[in-house]
């Protein structure tokens, strides 16, 4: 609060008294000391004067018609605009109970009539100085809170950077080490399959040319169940081929997710990043003993290549998908899914991913689940660092905070959460197609 509206006055004083002589006396005395003085003959006028211009100190009489000083003070303290203004009661009442009541309703000082001018001035100056110190303290507290928030943001960013570097190195190393042997296996399976087929053909020709094998050969054919081996061997080669192909797909997803060599901004296919995250989370989507498999519904729009930090954006997709799975596991594993089963309903856990172009210059990615939703009282804090609704040991409270920084600060976008009790939650990301 500015204590000096102009350089000519030490402070703005509102004097409230129903006796005109008292008003004139106090006004003349305080004006002579350099204060700007305003006068009010009753409580109603005093409240109006405070709304028009906030005083630095109020001198308030107790015995007034209509509304006494106690009532005026109570109304002042109940109003957010005037509650911080110091109120000094000045009254002829000298009883201890009157003074106690004055302090109970919010007064900061009490002066008994007849008063001494010097005492009044000193007490007013004391309250103005106290208010000035309180204001400076509040400003310092605000600056400290800002510094603390900035420090937390810097800590989160540092953790994010370290995690991304470590994750990128780990994933790139694993992908490289796995890629070499699996490429060898995958490349040779085709030849192995051909060799097996040639050997099977050779055996068939032998059986045609020599339909009556020796007893020893016939015994071996029976022991190994040759017909079964021939049929199963071909199935086995096919299964090995599919397994190797799956490993190659996972390795490719790991490389695409980490993008260790793509720390700079570049144009990427958003859908590839989402699909890579889904591949890495495939084990969490499968059916468990407590819930059916989570169905992923892709509603992909026709998106252009987006100019972004691919690795960090992929991490946002991973956080949001992980949170959606956690939310459904919590609601479906506990009472929510059990109640639906008891009622004979077949509600399948589902994640819906919707992408589209918005306003021609932005892309919107929405990831929604059909879990139990997020309480309204918690949604305002979802993106605060270290805030989590998960049980101890299951969440650090950094995932959504990091995601918010990546989307808002690094991509000049928006991330929001919409949720309704019992109907799940939707996290929506909106980022520009081309960053300025």
TrEMBL record:
Gene3D superfamilies: 1.10.287.130, 3.40.50.2300, Histidine kinase-like ATPase, C-terminal domain. Residues 12-128 form the Response regulatory domain. Residues 173-435 form the Histidine kinase domain. InterPro entries: CheY-like_superfamily, HATPase_C_sf, HATPase_dom, His_kinase_dom, HisK_dim/P_dom, HisK_dim/P_sf, Sig_transdc_His_kin-like_C, Sig_transdc_resp-reg_receiver. The modification 4-aspartylphosphate is found at residue 61. It catalyses: ATP + protein L-histidine = ADP + protein N-phospho-L-histidine. GO terms for molecular function: phosphorelay sensor kinase activity. This is histidine kinase. It comes from Komarekiella delphini-convector SJRDD-AB1.
